[in-house]
Automatic annotation (TrEMBL):
<dbReference type="InterPro" id="IPR018484">
    <property type="entry name" value="FGGY_N"/>
</dbReference>
<dbReference type="GO" id="GO:0005739">
    <property type="term" value="C:mitochondrion"/>
</dbReference>
<dbReference type="GO" id="GO:0019563">
    <property type="term" value="P:glycerol catabolic process"/>
</dbReference>
<dbReference type="GO" id="GO:0046167">
    <property type="term" value="P:glycerol-3-phosphate biosynthetic process"/>
</dbReference>
<dbReference type="GO" id="GO:0004370">
    <property type="term" value="F:glycerol kinase activity"/>
</dbReference>
<dbReference type="Pfam" id="PF00370">
    <property type="entry name" value="FGGY_N"/>
</dbReference>
<dbReference type="InterPro" id="IPR043129">
    <property type="entry name" value="ATPase_NBD"/>
</dbReference>
<keyword id="KW-0808">Transferase</keyword>
<dbReference type="GO" id="GO:0006641">
    <property type="term" value="P:triglyceride metabolic process"/>
</dbReference>
<dbReference type="InterPro" id="IPR018483">
    <property type="entry name" value="Carb_kinase_FGGY_CS"/>
</dbReference>
<keyword id="KW-0418">Kinase</keyword>
<comment type="pathway">
    <text>Polyol metabolism; glycerol degradation via glycerol kinase pathway; sn-glycerol 3-phosphate from glycerol: step 1/1.</text>
</comment>
<feature type="domain" description="Carbohydrate kinase FGGY C-terminal">
    <location>
        <begin position="75"/>
        <end position="263"/>
    </location>
</feature>
<feature type="domain" description="Carbohydrate kinase FGGY N-terminal">
    <location>
        <begin position="1"/>
        <end position="65"/>
    </location>
</feature>
<dbReference type="Pfam" id="PF02782">
    <property type="entry name" value="FGGY_C"/>
</dbReference>
<dbReference type="InterPro" id="IPR018485">
    <property type="entry name" value="FGGY_C"/>
</dbReference>
<comment type="similarity">
    <text>Belongs to the FGGY kinase family.</text>
</comment>
Length: 311
């Protein structure tokens, strides 16, 4: 929070702004993500004396685990919320479209930067169907319920339970269902719930492309909701590019292991990692036209505008 993205040192202006007494406050040293000597060793247990050689935040680790090593690579983690990271290269890109700028990782003294966008409600919307509405008895059954109907039946569900995060930043928006008729079934609402996360992902990716000037070729995915084939196919349809899901979804742990391994020479170049976690991957390709996707997103955008101002 207090680091200057350009110098990778603590920003004196920020520290002054928050009136920190630097004679009393001792901030940790800023170091690379992957380093043999910076982090110390484990002190207890069966791994005692084993060095800690890599440290990454969870979303940066997932980007590394998805091998997002080149500009234009992006990943989305579908958990309770959603978190997208988009690799923009070796210079920070300051967003003008509602995103955060961050350091993705630094393995060799040449930091790589990313744009980040977050969705407040993703997997938690499935829990809402389960716990609040009683539509399903397990979150894993949401796709099965959604597949009982062919489409959303005209229903749009803006899952703004706590406002909308990136790229909208509407804190006065609230969850709203549109398009309900006497023929609306549980399956329509279940499908609209999955679509809500996919629409917000599309909005963030469009903002990322505008900020970076780079077109996304494919989206790497992980997290619990990515287990839903229906959700991932919907995502591919809406963003009009392939969605790639690895068989092993623990990409955050893999990214942390990669950072640690680089420091001790397990890998020396990113090229050596190209075949890691590729066996059994699933690719979802768009099945609708870009025009159809645009029409669906236009309806979503209309619903977003109508859900504002409830506070």
């Amino acid at each position: 929070m207090f680091m200057n993205l350009y110098t990778l040192e603590y920003d004196e202006q920020l520290l002054d702004f928050f009136r920190f007494d630097m004679d009393k406050l001792h901030l940790p040293k800023i170091v690379r993500s992957s380093d043999r000597k910076s982090f110390g060793t484990l002190t207890t247990g069966i791994l005692k004396e084993v060095p800690i050689t890599g440290v990454l935040g969870d979303q940066s680790a997932a980007l590394v685990g998805q091998k997002g090593f080149t500009p234009g690579r992006a990943k989305n983690t579908y958990g309770t919320g959603c978190f997208l990271l988009y690799h923009v290269g070796d210079k920070p890109v300051i967003s003008t479209h509602g995103l955060l700028s961050t350091v993705a990782y630094d393995f060799d003294g040449k930091p790589q930067y990313a744009l980040e966008g977050s969705i407040a409600v993703a997997g938690s919307s499935i829990k809402f169907l389960q716990n609040n509405l009683g539509f399903i008895d397990s979150s894993t059954k949401v796709s099965q319920l959604a597949e009982t109907v062919e489409d959303n039946g005209g229903v749009t569900f803006v899952t703004a339970f706590s406002g909308l995060f990136a790229p909208y930043w509407y804190d006065d928006a609230r969850g709203t269902l549109f398009g309900i008729t006497a023929y609306t079934q549980k399956g329509h609402i279940a499908r609209a719930t999955l679509e809500a996360t996919c629409f917000q992902t599309k909005a963030i990716l469009e903002a990322m492309e505008k900020d970076s000037g780079k077109k996304l070729a494919e989206l790497a995915v992980d997290g619990g909701m990515s287990n839903s084939d229906l959700c991932m196919q919907t995502q591919a349809d809406l963003i009009s590019i392939p969605v790639e899901r690895p068989r092993m979804l623990e990409t955050t742990a893999l990214g942390a292991a990669i950072a640690a391994g680089f420091a001790v020479g397990v890998w020396e170049t990113f090229d050596k990692l190209k075949n890691i976690n590729t066996a059994g991957k699933t690719e979802f390709r768009p099945k609708i036209t870009k025009e159809e996707s645009k029409e669906k997103f236009s309806r979503w955008s209309k619903a977003v505008e109508m859900c504002k101002g409830w506070l």
